[in-house]
Hints:
By secondary structure, the chain is an alpha+beta fold.
Amino acid sequence: MKCDKCSHTCSTTDGLRTHDRDYHRLVVYYYDKTWKLAHRTTGGFTCPICNETFITTRSFMAHLSYSYGLKVSIDKKYAVNDTIEQSVDLENTEPKKQEPKVASKFLDVTNDQSTDLEDSVKKKQEREVNYKLNENNKRSREGWETEDFQEKIKHIPQKLLSDGFKPAKMKERRLSKRDVVLLAGDAVTSEKAVQDDKVMAQKLGRFVPIIHTIGEKQLGLLTSASMASFLLAKRETCGTWLSPENEGEDLTAQTTTSYNDFWIGYLKENSKASNALKNTTHEELSESMVSWLNGDWLEFPQLRYCLAQLLVGSILVEGTISIMINTIEPYSRDQFIDAHYERQGLAVSSYPTTPEKYGLLRICLIQTADGLKLVIGSRTCSFLVTSSARLDTVSLNLGPETNHFVPTSTTRLFVDSLSLQACESLLKDQSVARVQSMLSMNLLRQVRSKFDKLSTYTMCRASSSIASLPELQPLSIWTLCSIESTNPKMSQQKIVSSLFRIIAGEVIKFGKKATLKKSDFDEIASEIQGAMKNPFDNINELFGKSDEIGIISNKVLNQHLTYLAGKISNKQDNEKRIQSIINSIYD
């Protein structure tokens, strides 16, 4: 079938009818306060609001409907179905018996002026009379300027002629999910196949369609479920709309640094500890940082302090699971530097034999008699995580065991910017003797042996700024005695802890020359009872007639202290601290 207005051919009658509507329809009715006409020009229909031109009738109507929420129609009888605003003075008109209302479908309304009413009525009368004479004749408006025109107009119901026309308020239609997807994808007027592709892309990306209104205009947007929840929440302001930076045509040109900044920022903002993290900045571990982590402590003594500072406050990310390191302890692999070096022969070692994600650095879990330990290892040292908090859920590990995070070879590490700055400052000072400005006992590692070695008393344990308060740090044999208690009488474990506290204080002050004074020991021993009394008696014998005994290199004293350390358990008291830390860190 060939179109009688152009050379286009269609195989079906319906196709020809659709073609005629899209390419040869001359007018479209749209409602913008009043019903108005849009006329086709040579280039098609031009939007009266944004001046964009559309070739087909259907695309023009869709544009008005979706972009501006206007009611549109190609059929006059469906378009003009509201009362008409006019201003005709009927003050001196005698009331007459009303005839049935003039059907609004006969009125061609373009504005609310009285002259338009006259034109509309003329057309109505013209159509009625000519229909009676000959419905096939050409309609003409001539001859309708008759004397009885004013008389005829009186028969129009008063409601149609009253001032202040108020059309029935149309219920604004909210866009459907599919509408929003098509609008966001600029596919409202596209072919069905293209539209289906847009819908499929939305489903594959698991994007949530939402509507943003500006006046009467509805905008379609696609975003994540969490972002949709944030945007749809009731807030005082809607914020400011901004365009992203222009990256050019090559999307790969975007720097890794800027992407990582955005990515880790998004992770923290949507974490369970977003309030605690809102003032922090993080950056991914770099090659230069890994080089520091592989530095030799013998050559650079300050590394035992600054490297723990570098890693504390870091965020480890594995898939959708992430943790923040609150407390960390460094250990050298050189047994002459650190008596607590990582032992060989373990089923899993933190020693990186080959380069991994960050080069010569490994993040792993090591099974020990005390449970699973989260360790970050380089070729010269290792770092034990003793306190960590999950960011994707509320979970806290306090102590040497970590059971809420399992790293892999793809685990990412982001260091805290303030920790990095502090590390760089410590690197410049070879005489540094402590990692942070904090109580000395809180800087000592959680060890239970080698009390005759100087390295046991190295003040190198670091805590993040978020968990720097003493009550938010894991307990150790050095700090157990200092925790607050409603019971005025100290437990036997706390009394033993006070002995370790005195010994550590002496070594920190005097180094190799540190001694345990008989007077200090006797004061503590007088409160010891039960099973703890025997090792205290053994230590007392070491004094003989002396007022003090040496601490460093005193192997016999170390044996008794190691036994006592094994009798002290921090687990129960650490568990009591967990709730306080949760209240401090999480939103």
